[in-house]
Amino acid sequence: MNTPFFNAHHSPIGSFSSFTLGEKGSRGGFGLEIGKPADQAVYIGCEEASGVFRFLPFFEYSESDDERSRYEVGGASSEKTEPQSEIRQFTDHQISRDFYVSTDTWNAEDLEFTVISPFASVPDPDAIDTSDVNLRLALVPAVLATLTLDNRKGAGPRRAIFGYEDPHMLQASSNVRRLDDTLPEGLVGIGQGRSIAIVSDSKGVVSGQSLTMSELLGETNPKNLTFALGPATALIATVEPGEIRTFRFAICFYRDGYATVGLDTSYYYTHLWDRIEDVAAFALKNFENLSGIAESANSRIEKSKLSQTQKFMLNHAIRSYYGSTQLLRRSSGQPLWIVNEGEYRMINTLDLTADQVFFELALNPWTVRNEMEIFAERYSYTDRVYYPGKPETTFPGGISFTHDMGVANVFSRPHYSAYEKYGLDGCFSHMTHEELVNWLCCALAYGHLDPKWLSSKITLVTACFDSMVNRDDPDSDKRNGVMSLESTRCAGGAEITTYDSLDVSLGQSRGNVYLASKCWAAYVGLEKAFRDNNLAQLAAQAKEQATKCAHTVAASVGADGTLSAIIGEDVEARIIPAIEGLVFPALFGVPQATSSTGEYSEYIAVLKQHLKGVLHKGICLFANGGWKLSSTSDNSWLSKIYLSQYIARQVLGIDGDEVTASADDAHASWLLDPQNTYWAWSDQILSGHAVGSKYYPRGVTAWLWLSEK
Known about the structure:
The structure is a single chain. The protein has an eight-stranded antiparallel sheet with strand order 6-7-8-9-16-13-12-11. The protein has a six-stranded mixed sheet with strand order 5-4-3-10-15-14. A three-stranded antiparallel sheet has the order 17-18-19. The chain is built from 18 helices and 27 strands. The chain has two domains: 17-61 and 84-298; 304-707, Glycosyltransferase, CATH 1.50.10. The protein is 30% helix and 19% strand. It has 709 residues and is an alpha+beta fold. The model has no long low-confidence stretch (mean pLDDT 95).
């Protein structure tokens, strides 16, 4: 890291919440169900021998007293001056940061502050009792923190402080507050309403509230710490001279009642704890267990052979993924797993699910099953298809799935997404074929781990296969394995892909070698699924489609050895994601499909040649070595780059500076660019700057790096 000052998530699993910290100024804080940092002033610091208070720079200091002026109008004020304390920030050279996947530690002189964000596999709620301690440890909506102050060289007592100030208090539904009178004995806390709490069980910690932080720290009458009007609140502890002390905190989030509309759900954790005070008590009682889980997560990545740059990007991405997760409970009692789409907050965007599947299958496979089942139950539809430019004549299409399930805690009506519109051929058009293939790839990958489940869904899987071939061509003799027809949902427009804001090179679905690669993978997986379920004729048909698709792509290679982004159209663009589908066969249990000597060897050889041909500056590399997904666009998605890097090395056997070291350095520099650091991990980068897909979960494609041999 060339700077310690970048925002990062510190998030419990499944609570759609984040203690975001790292960017200078009031640009972090305690966010619940928002697609950005909370923009609160966070105070983490200590008293110096001089009586001045020094803090990490996560607030914007001001001498103004605007909060007091709201009350002291017309000159009416007390004759006695309220005591104030001098507040300053540590300088940059005094601060260092150790950033891991589950711990984030700041050091400044004799102060140390660590945020602990445990993550581990979540037990399947359908297969375990809610009283199970492992389920509770995984789902407690809290992260932990420690604050250590070394006063061994001090001549007098010094205070340590952890608190915050909410500048948006006037717009909030609840004021900040002290929690002491609602907490179990032995705990003290501060927070906001019933939804945010910082609680400590360390001896000597006291809570306070005031109009400003300087006024709070200058208070000489302990009784005035209970003043309840102001937006500034903190937990304060005293360290005697000659002592070093560490204080423990639980940072908790809670939302009770119904969490969503359109489909009534509540947070799963509300069925494990009745209120935020109970969450805090559990988290502090299990502080050591949760800290051990965090250390295990750290060790898993730190002991890997990844470079420090790769570890940084993976750690950052995992944190951002969990910041977008929600585990809900339906009125029927069934769990519902959601990954919100970062700043956009769309619910379970299916083209993100297909990239997050690698991470989810490794840690929480049941979440993939859960996502696929609600797509099938509520967010599938049946359409018809037509040849491009001829919407008046339609043919049987089949089943497909929506782009998403809604947005910002509002579930969309059944069979429709929040995103897709009609009559378009760019952003917001339908992704019918893309999502059909994405659902199949996720279902087939999960089904390899759970064959009984896949067998129970074989009728649906068969319907998906029929839908795919119908979108190839209504005439079986004319099929080439690649999408050729548009969905009637487009109403005369054209389907798009997950690369919705790119030009035709990756934005257009029809004839796209990116989508063709995923179609090929789906057909390979379907052949195995049908064969495993004794459906020999369907298996043969799926193999035929896979062979046709591979041949069509291989036959379109140009004289320079590379592939045009769109088959059969006059498109000069060259794209890296032509290789993307190669990641799936191994997940389906068919790793031999990507062998250089197997039955698809010609296809594999063409893709390898293509990738080597485009990984050059001026084609699909930026000047600094970063990857351009398309030669005709400077807009790149980091999640897709991570995925393609894995494929290049692990599947195609291509490595080198342009694939790994220089490329990784360039990609990490994007995340640490001062224009991007506010948004933690961001996906969509235009010429080095985050332009969309900010605060995003999709970067966990980098999890694949851990499995490279």
